[in-house]
Design goal:
Chain lengths: 382, 413
């Protein structure tokens, strides 16, 4: 069950990463409000599909009671995410890339505040629960066909959701692969490389950028709807935070911007590492004693490595010196991890996030093209 | 009441100014938006917290002299954070120099997460403060209430900004910084040591951010997210002032602060005028429809089709909205309070929570109308240019309307 959950989460992040890859990897649009679009998708989906929730006692209830089928909810999520993307892109796409970054960052913050405070719409901190999964559609179809009620167990429900997630990855992947190989995709790449040149060739770059941005935002909306499906609860306190945006970014960058396969691989890799490292937390008490031993040992190792690196630099062996420097750096990083276990506020989630952030910095320093790098696309003629 | 809000806005604004000067200098000289600036602010606040505690354990001070320890801790924090800025440049950002802004930008986002979670790891997520004794607000003329903290914030921000002004205007380094922010290549050709300027920028940016963090901790509370929540208004101030212009950032920060603090009580007061809301909404929708349609006409004259079409759509939507409101109000005698209920259902029950929306709206407006900001990229007296443009607007409007009536008249010029 845990493994299936990890697969589900990875798949959902892969969908979001595909959306960002179209925006950033192919068109060079800097969207750091991914969480906002995912959240818009999730809330739209939840409001459209959940049963009515009138205010009762302490709970404020939320807008809803439409009880639409799941596919309609997904369509609504796509539409609203795309529309908000259109609105935010309107003033910013004509300007430099960094303006779009700042505006989308702002959008993410504002949307989060809105979700947390618009009690009668989103339920605020009380969240929207009882979000239906795709099996609701299937069972209602079953009831419609056979007239007999059906109960779907949690395992079957997860399996159906997994199928839907895999299907949406496949669909998005093939649609995007096809479109980036088309003349349209070539214009997108030319905008990324040199917008002025694309403009000089008579392309209306604003229009192409807008299309790519809205399309990406719609796919992120789908990812948000899938996330709502997965958790069955939509709330903005812990999900749809800047960390989520950051996660999608690191997935795209680790996989290699401008590479759809890389985005999918990156999602499974990063989410896999992130989720399976949770298992480590179980063995924490053992860590506490070991950190008392390991911290000084690692400190000495780091000092030795730095010393050797210094000696090698003096003797004119830059290759070895660099190797020792990297070893020393790794030792220091590990030592800091062991040291932090001694902190009274220790929480493994923080270590994980620090690790992911460091990976991003290191990638930008040494390998900005990511693991797979950009895929060279050879377009078919005619 | 409004005066009090303006003074509060000035206090918040002066904190924003300290953050925005550093950010705009880094943006202008290092040529990328430094998204970890909010975390540098948080870092400064926490370093000051640590040293404040350390000083107080070494020397016991009477409650009315506790601020001395905090002052000393702030100085230490500013120094250490400035050194940290240099460390960041040497270890991370130096090797990404001279390329597109993308690599350092993404690295700065990663850095923000490392710093934020590092702070959480070391200090925990609980709320802290500097342990100053509780204060009673002084009542100044016009019914303005100020605590000692508020006065200290205003004073120290003023002193720091004055220091920045003196450095930028009267020292060679400051002139070199302004020149580099203005035109990188030209500055190099003139023989300015650009690397030194970059280090000075990090020192100034990070040091001011640390001061902003301490002041923010005094005004609100110390928590791991304190800096991140201020990042948006600071960016709004930077863009409003014009990227790379410290003086623009000062004006922008104060404007954003005041706008933020004044508009929120205004939102609150909306609830008291429920009855008036419908006519006002009607008026606004009509105005917006007319404005968008007018804009459409102006734009289509200048041959900017795609934007014109968009404005036509907007104008149409607003016009339809206005018509609907008018019809429902005039013919069906809708209860004036009913639309109000809808309005508040949209999530405006707690207007105070939407404070950050104000800088965001200003940001989007500035991007739409004035992407260069108030001052533009240089700190030449662009205010004069701005005023000139403003004063030319009526003339321009007449010319445009003329060209709309008879195109030949303007074309023959």
């Amino acid at each position: 069950m845990f493994v299936i959950s990890v697969f589900l989460i990875s798949g959902i992040w892969a969908v979001a990463a595909l959306g960002l890859n179209l925006q950033w990897g192919y068109t060079g649009l800097f969207n750091i409000g991914v969480a906002a679009f995912m959240g818009i998708g999730a809330y739209t989906f939840a409001i459209l599909t959940t049963p009515d929730a009138p205010p009762t006692g302490a709970l404020p209830g939320h807008l809803g009671g439409f009880g639409l089928p799941v596919w309609a909810g997904v369509l609504g999520a796509m539409a609203l995410a795309g529309f908000i993307g259109f609105l935010i892109a309107l003033p910013t796409l004509r300007l430099r890339a960094d303006y779009l970054a700042i505006a989308t960052l702002g959008l993410a913050e504002i949307m989060r505040l809105y979700w947390l405070n618009a009690l009668t719409i989103t339920g605020g901190p009380f969240s929207i629960s009882r979000v239906p999964r795709p099996d609701a559609d299937i069972s209602s179809l079953w009831v419609f066909l056979t007239g007999q009620p059906v109960v779907v167990g949690p395992n079957l429900s997860a399996a159906i959701l997994l199928t839907v997630v895999v299907l949406s990855i496949v669909v998005v992947y093939f649609v995007f692969e096809r479109s980036v190989r088309s003349p349209w995709g070539r214009v997108l790449k030319s905008i990324r490389e040199d917008e002025d040149a694309a403009q000089a060739l008579g392309k209306n770059t604003f229009r192409y950028k807008m299309q790519a941005f809205v399309l990406g935002a719609m796919v992120m909306g789908v990812a948000g709807a899938l996330l709502a499906n997965f958790f069955r609860v939509v709330e903005a306190g812990t999900t749809f935070v800047p960390t989520d945006t950051f996660f999608v970014w690191i997935i795209v960058i680790v996989g290699g911007s401008g590479n759809h396969k890389g985005a999918i691989l990156g999602a499974f890799l990063i989410v896999g590492i992130f989720e399976f490292s949770r298992l480590l937390t179980a063995s924490l008490p053992g860590f506490l004693e070991s950190s008392l031993v390991f911290t000084p040992v690692l400190g000495i190792l780091a000092a030795v490595a730095f010393g050797l690196s210094f000696v090698d630099t003096r003797r004119g062996r830059p290759g070895r010196a660099r190797l020792f420097l990297i070893t020393g750096g790794a030792c220091v990083a590990l030592m800091l991890v062991f040291l932090s276990i001694l902190s009274p506020n220790f929480n493994f989630a923080f270590i994980r996030l620090i690790g992911v952030g460091s990976i991003l910095i290191l990638l930008m320093m040494y390998r900005p093209q990511g693991l797979l790098g950009e895929e060279r696309k050879i377009s078919r003629m005619g | 009441m409004v005066l009090q809000n303006i003074v509060d806005g000035l206090i918040v604004g002066s904190i924003l100014v300290l953050g925005a000067i550093g950010l705009t200098l880094i943006y202008g000289i290092r040529r990328f938006p430094f998204f970890a600036h909010g975390e540098i602010i948080t870092l400064g606040a926490y370093i000051a917290l640590v040293f404040n505690g350390a000083f107080l354990t070494v020397i016991a001070l009477p409650p009315e002299q506790l601020w001395l320890a905090l002052l000393l801790a702030t100085a230490v924090s500013m120094t250490l954070t400035a050194l940290f800025g240099i460390f960041l440049e040497i270890s991370i950002f130096k090797r990404m120099h001279g390329e597109s802004l993308v690599r350092p930008l993404i690295a700065s986002i990663g850095l923000a997460f490392v710093l934020q979670n590092g702070i959480r790891l070391i200090f925990g997520t609980s709320l802290r403060n500097y342990g100053l004794p509780a204060q009673i607000a002084r009542v100044l003329p016009f019914g303005i209430r100020l605590t000692d903290n508020a006065i200290a914030i205003l004073l120290s921000a003023f002193v720091l900004v004055l220091g920045v002004h003196i450095i930028l205007k009267y020292t060679t380094l400051g002139k070199a910084m302004r020149a580099t922010a203005d035109n990188w290549d030209l500055a190099r050709v003139t023989g300015i040591d650009v690397q030194r300027v970059i280090y000075a920028t990090w020192v100034m940016g990070a040091g001011l951010a640390a001061a902003a963090g301490v002041l923010l901790g005094l005004w609100t509370i110390i928590r791991p997210l304190m800096g991140f929540t201020q990042l948006l208004p600071i960016f709004a101030a930077v863009i409003l002032g014009g990227i790379g212009s410290p003086y623009g950032a000062m004006a922008g920060g104060l404007l954003i602060g005041v706008a933020q603090e004044v508009s929120v009580p205004f939102l609150f007061s909306l609830a008291e005028y429920k009855v008036a809301l419908l006519p006002v909404a009607l008026l606004l929708a009509t105005l917006a429809g007319v404005a968008f349609l007018g804009w459409y006409l102006l734009r289509s004259i200048r041959d900017r089709r795609s934007l014109a079409r968009v404005s036509l759509v907007f104008g149409g939507v607003f016009a339809v909205l206005a018509a609907l409101l008018l019809v429902s109000f005039a013919f069906f005698q809708v209860d004036p309070n009913a639309p109000v209920a809808v309005f508040f259902e949209l999530g405006l029950q707690q207007p105070a929570a939407f404070k950050p929306a104000i800088p965001f709206m200003i940001l989007v407006l500035v991007l739409l109308l004035l992407p260069g900001g108030l001052v533009g990229l240089s700190d030449k007296p662009r205010f004069k240019v701005f005023i000139k443009v403003l004063s030319n607007l009526p003339k321009k409007a007449v010319a445009t309307s003329r060209s709309f009536i008879g195109r030949k008249m303007t074309r023959s010029k």
